[in-house]
Specification:
YbhB_YbcL/LppC-like; 207 residues; Phospholipid-binding protein, PBP family; three-stranded antiparallel beta sheet; Phosphatidylethanolamine-binding Protein; 2 helices; mainly beta; single chain; 11 strands; PEBP; six-stranded antiparallel beta sheet
């Protein structure tokens, strides 16, 4: 399989228009355009009955104590965990492209619905947990929400966009399912996959 994410070149910075948070010299960070990028794929294996899209950042601090705290830094040596930014499953087998802005076009305080539409069924991304303590932002974040790494993180973050060709029409996931559930449900059903990786940082020393 091959994957193309419009505007994203392997190993290069992700454009601000796809980001949840953008660099702001005065306030460190402000909300970004948060548009879901156009994603297209081809060279699909025979027997494909649906697709799944997974976007995640494997560089998220495992401990958030120093995240976005003035006078502190998030050490590059801190253990890291996966943070899921986009989960879309049960994408019809005849689809080969999702247009830019189709699954997100702006930051939506308190999140977006987890539902099934013409492009597939949305999962819950990890902003649901990250923003749970913020009364202005807390909610269920379905579908795409883009990069917004800590502005004081010493580590450059990497964002993996993946598409999977599956041998089932549906993964059988309902309700507010997360990235762990998607990975578990896909086991034994992946015919092929493809990935492209972009980078992003809000740390002025790394930009």
């Amino acid at each position: 399989m091959k994957i193309q994410v419009s505007g994203i070149i392997e190993g290069q910075p992700i454009p601000d228009r796809f980001a949840f948070g953008v660099f702001n010299a005065e306030d460190r960070m402000s909300f970004g355009p948060n548009r879901s990028p156009e994603i297209a794929w081809d060279e699909v294996p025979e027997g494909t009955r649906s697709f799944a899209i997974v976007m995640f950042d494997p560089d998220v601090p495992s401990v958030a104590d120093n995240v976005n705290q003035e006078g502190k830094t998030v050490s590059r040596d801190l253990p890291r965990v996966d943070f899921f930014h986009w989960l879309l499953v049960d994408i019809p087998a005849d689809m080969r492209r999702i247009p830019e802005g189709e699954d997100s076009d702006g930051v939506m305080p308190k999140g977006k619905a987890v539902d099934a539409g013409s492009i597939g069924r949305r999962g819950v991304n990890n902003y649901t947990q990250f923003l749970a303590g913020n009364p202005d932002m807390a909610g269920t974040y379905g579908g795409y929400d883009g990069p917004c790494p800590p502005w004081n993180d010493e580590l450059l973050h990497h964002y993996h966009f993946e598409v999977y060709a599956l041998d089932v029409e549906s993964l059988g996931l309902d309700g507010e399912f997360d990235g762990v559930a998607v990975r578990e449900a896909m086991k034994g059903h992946v015919l092929a996959s493809a990935r492209v990786t972009g980078t992003y940082t809000l740390n002025p020393d790394l930009r």
